[in-house]
Records
---
Amino acid sequence: MKIRWTAAVALAALTAVTFAGCGGSGSASATDKIKKAGKVVMTTNAEFEPFEYKDGDEITGIDIEISQAIADKLGVKLEISDIAFDSLIPSLNAGKADFIAAGMTATEDRRKNVDFSEAYFNASQAIIVTVDSEIASRTDLNGKIVGVQQGTTGDSYCTNEDGSSDVQVGEVKRYPKGMDAVSDLIAGRLDAVVIDNFPAEKLVGKNADTIKKLDEALTEEEYAIALPKGSDLTDTVNETIKELNESGKMDEIVSKYISAE
Ligand code: ARG
């Protein structure tokens, strides 16, 4: 009896140790899994130049280079999964990717579902209008039809569900791509488009004779990499961002895609 009891305890203890060694709860051993697979999967929405966009068949941009640096640090290959912006967090949490690099603003709301790395970029929401528009400032958006990319911070700002903004947009139209909103603006179906400032500049740059970006910024935001809650990969991502910043490589990457005016 005595001997059997001891054996049972020993077996239980051994089992506990074995499970702890495997990382136990889900994402605790993300790094081991990645190294074993020889690849890290980043998910993004490549409709957001200069951060991620398609150049022919290739996906390129600032976030892609940062992601490549993360893969290099892990010593594995980078795999990119390009999906709709509002599917990014669900897809990450379904285990289909290891991290999100998508010019994603670190918001309190999103923090309920993901962990964010240290911020790597300061951004804001900008207003795009046609060159002949009477809209000259944010409050001119009152009652107007505004296009946004679905599920972005520009969408929440214009939708104003929590009532935190004093701007009361008349109607918010949501698009899968910022580019499609701009096409509708040019076609006269929208009064304005609200989108992040650097993508706004790229979009205006391609249509400078018909649209312009207003100087006034609507929000102040910080981009960060999103990871599953509790992922041990967050440390590697933070170290990579720190190294890119300290070595001057981050500035190099950014200036490759954003020319200083
Ligand atoms: N910064 C905004 C947000 O986090 C927009 C990001 C859109 N990014 C993209 N890859 N389409 O909501």
---
Amino acid sequence: MAPAPPPRPPIDGPLDRAAIEAWLGETDQRRLDELWAAANETRRLRVGDEVHLRGLIELSNYCVRACGYCGLRAGNREIERYRMSRDEILDCARTAREFGYGTVVLQSGEDYGIKTDWLAAIVRAIKTETGLAVTLSLGERPDDDLAVWREAGADRYLLRFETSDDELYRLIHPDLLGRRSDRFAILRALRELGYEVGSGIMVGIPGQTRASVAADIDAFRDLDLDMIGIGPYISHPATPLGDHSWQRPIPAEEQIGNDELTVYKAVALTRLACPQANIPSTTALATINQVDGRELGLMRGANVVMPNLTPPEYRAKYEIYPDKACVGETAEMCRGCLQGRIEAIGREIGSGAGGRRHG
Ligand code: 5AD
Ligand code: FES
């Protein structure tokens, strides 16, 4: 006999791990509509109707890591590597300012060609010249680097833990030089340094179960994260996960999907578990539903979007996963596109830095 389905939690009941897991498996349309409505209402009450814009600068696609899922992995010889110059980065930051974005996000692979002091000087220049909030997303750098950048004025740091399932994480994210990768320790260090701390996951990694995504959402709550990014896992053929040379064996019925509906469930549940967090409607979600993925994310719990500022000649090279949204676009086009989408769903563009709310 098939096992009994898990009990169906009420939408206003306690959202413990078992309830989150049951919601992740929900298929009843009426109940899902209740979930979307509850997440949207919580979003409205706790972080308001403003959608904050974070201008994304993908400053380097060099990476020392060998992640099984990511197209920037060191072993991928099919992409041409680039690192933007200081002037190019500052130009993007000026554009962000001109476009009225409150934040720039400097993102890259884990690239030690990005020298600690070089980046610190850029952070200082951006802060002095534009006054924008600066978010860094540069991988698992040593605590000393993180301290120097914080000192230089960086406000926030993003480091997704990808999955809280330790065994799965270690399989898809090999250690570097025999040193054990501990993203939770880095997240704690970032908090101690006074950063606003962001993390997040991919949903639908091969070998990832519904129970483990429920544990991820529970972990978001325990970590009291300021920002939480959730996107679908998208298969990249130039990676071990994508070319199926690697697969963790789990029972097929436990595998969580990487479809958009599953991502909306995870976003909505995260909003309910972490009502005041800043939650982006991610580019990966916009990639698997180019029609209205971003809007649906914003209507089901999210309150942030990340317009791309990367110069067009570099965009295609920052190929974390294939067919990434906005690759053929310019900064200007992304700005207009997102403004239109935000207004079309009756929301407004956020003003100011859009930091984490408290209380
Ligand atoms: N599909 C979806 N997201 C991915 N990322 C990396 N590779 C993929 C992929 N194949 C996400 C990771 C990383 C972020 C920058 O991009 O979550 O933290
Ligand atoms: Fe870049 Fe829509 S956000 S084109």
